[in-house]
Design brief:
Enzyme class: transferase
Bound molecules: S-adenosylmethionine
CATH superfamily: Vaccinia Virus protein VP39
Strand content: 15-25%
GO molecular function: rRNA (guanine-N7-)-methyltransferase activity
Helix content: 25-40%
Organism: Mucilaginibacter corticis
Radius of gyration: 16 Å
CATH topology: Rossmann fold
Strand order of the largest sheet: 3-2-1-4-5-7-6
EC number: 2.1.1.-
Distance between the termini: 35 Å
Shape: globular
CATH architecture: 3-Layer(aba) Sandwich
CATH class: Alpha Beta
Largest sheet: 7 strands, mixed
Function: Specifically methylates the N7 position of a guanine in 16S rRNA.
Structural class: alpha/beta
Number of helices: 8
Order of helices and strands: HHHHEHEHEEHEHEE
């Protein structure tokens, strides 16, 4: 996928936003050589598998100016960094339990000139703030995740859904959802993106 193909899914990006997205491949190639944050086979498919996948959350939840979002287990900055480019007036806090990954996030955010990103080397359980939304991808099963972030929601969001979790997941989730005991809403990314990669990809919403 090229940047132009990516942009067709998000018309109306400013030249600055387009330039920030276009900087991502070179930045991640550089940082991935120092500190591995993306698997080698995926780095060639950065726009589809990491950037567009992260932006799937935006199709479900258009974050509002002033809203706050926590990205738990962000790794090299997914889904937080692409969403922070797309929503420059929303505040993103990216945390990960591995310090060197947070170093990559900080360097990438700095190189992009993102003023709406903070990143800390912390476990989710240690975060002591409240957020409008909590986002995540590929960290753990919902049943384990939920207790980490329970009670960390503002409950003031005026958005299309109340404050809650937006978790990127793939595959058959029936067992995982049942085991978690949580009431979830499932949104299918194939309704928004044509690429085969999104065939089973979902955004799982859980009210906070
Ligand atoms: C498979 S990686 C996914 C990274 C990124 N979200 C992505 O999709 O590319 C899982 C990440 O979760 C982090 N992690 C696991 N448990 C965590 C916790 N309790 N708090 C914060 N980060 C955690 C790990 O350090 C790791 O970087």
């Amino acid at each position: 996928m090229t940047s132009d193909q990516l942009f067709t899914y998000f018309p109306g990006l400013t030249p600055i936003q387009q330039q920030q997205f276009e900087q991502l491949p070179a930045l991640y190639e550089f940082w991935n050589n120092q500190i591995n944050v993306i698997s080698r086979k995926d780095i060639d498919q950065l726009f589809e598998r990491h950037v567009l996948h992260s932006l799937g959350i935006a199709k479900i939840m258009p974050f509002l100016p002033g809203e706050s979002v926590l990205d738990v287990g962000t790794g090299g900055g997914f889904p937080g960094i692409p969403l922070a480019i797309l929503f420059p007036d929303t505040k993103f806090y990216l945390v990960d339990s591995i310090g060197k990954k947070i170093k990559v996030v900080q360097e990438v955010a700095k190189a992009l000139g993102l003023k709406n990103v903070r990143a800390s080397h912390l476990r989710a359980e240690q975060v002591n703030e409240k957020f409008d939304f909590i986002i995540s991808r590929a960290v753990t099963r919902l049943g384990e995740f939920y207790p980490w972030i329970k009670g960390k929601f503002t409950r003031t969001s005026n958005n299309t859904l109340p404050s809650g979790i937006l978790y990127l997941k793939g595959g058959d989730l029936a067992e995982e959802i049942k085991e978690s005991g949580l009431k979830v809403q499932q949104f299918y990314l194939k309704d928004y993106f044509a690429e085969e990669f999104f065939e089973t990809k979902q955004v799982i919403y859980v009210k906070g």
